[in-house]
Amino acid sequence: MIEKISALYDKSIICRHCETPFSTKRIRGGSLTMEHRDADFCTRFKEKSMNPILYSVNVCPQCGFAFSDQFNAKLTPAQAKIVQQKISSKWTQKDFGSIRKNEEAIACYKLAIYAAELTDQPHSVKAGLYLRLGWLYRFLDNTAEELRFIGMAVDEYEHSYIHSDYMRGDKEMSEIRLLYLIGELHRRLGEFDSAIRYFGKALEFRNSTIESGIIRMAQDQWQLAREEYKEKQKFKGNEHEIG
Ligand SMILES: [Zn+2]
């Protein structure tokens, strides 16, 4: 328990709407033991209650504006006005700056998604929020909500691909990684045609990328998606015969 607590530290944040300084928790890099990484990059740690994604949303206790570090640095006057009307005027002071459980983190992500939609943040930023919210539901074994938000994430990632804003949300995101991720999210949604198409796009980088790990993952998941697709067709066939 002591180790767990020392992994957390307080970070000072300035609200990007009302400019009030406040404090929020973060997890020290390298302080957790990685246990498993899902094929869509969701990382599980041995310290189950301590995933860094619990803390990636900052919520201003004063005005209710919720944002991640990837949000645009400043709001335009028009955006500030709409945040004032739709968020701050309805906000009762609430502090998310201490240790967060899954449910609290979910509330933070929902606030950040609302703020991101109102202030027109880049698609990649919105995609990252939807995906991580899906993962929080995965941790709770709530598959229906997980897939609902993964559906929204893939939509935003596809826009991000078309508009090439994917460098904005995540420094580690490259074109091939994004194509692979879109494929994998479609696969999880049972949208095998799209999954296979995007894995194929990622595999086109086979001879031109140094990201050989992603190429291997794309090959494996492409194979898996093809098998799942065949299974589905078989099942459909059976259904037809029965019907
Ligand atoms: Zn604020």
Question: How would you explain this protein's 3D organization?
Answer:
The chain is mainly α and 243 residues long. It has one domain (2-173). It is 54% helix and 10% strand. It is built from nine helices and six strands, in the order H-E-E-E-E-E-E-H-H-H-H-H-H-H-H. It has helices at residues 2-6, 77-86, 102-118, 123-139, 143-163, 166-169, 175-188, 192-203, 212-242, and strands spanning 8-14, 21-27, 34-37, 43-45, 58-59, 66-67. It has a two-stranded antiparallel sheet with strand order 1-2. A hairpin with a 5-residue loop joins strand 3 and strand 4 (43-45). The model has no long low-confidence stretch (mean pLDDT 93). Residues 15, 17-18, 20, 60, 62-63, 65 line the site of zinc ion. This is DUF2225 domain-containing protein. InterPro entries: DUF2225, TPR-like_helical_dom_sf, TPR_rpt. TPR repeats lie at residues 176-209.
Gist?
It contains nine helices and six strands. By secondary structure, it is mainly alpha-helical.
Low-confidence stretches: none
Radius of gyration: 20 Å
Shape: globular
- Helix tally equals 9
Number of E-state strands: 6
Total individual domains: 1
Each distinct ligand: zinc ion
Distance between the termini: 57 Å
Protein structure class: mainly alpha
Mean pLDDT: 93
Hey, roughly how much beta strand do the residues contain? 5-15%
Bin the helical content: 40-55%
In which order are the strands of the major sheet placed? 1-2
Most strands sheet? 2 strands, antiparallel
**Secondary-structure element order, as H and E?**
HEEEEEEHHHHHHHH
TPR repeats: 176-209
Keywords: TPR repeat
InterPro entries: DUF2225, TPR-like_helical_dom_sf, TPR_rpt
Protein name: DUF2225 domain-containing protein
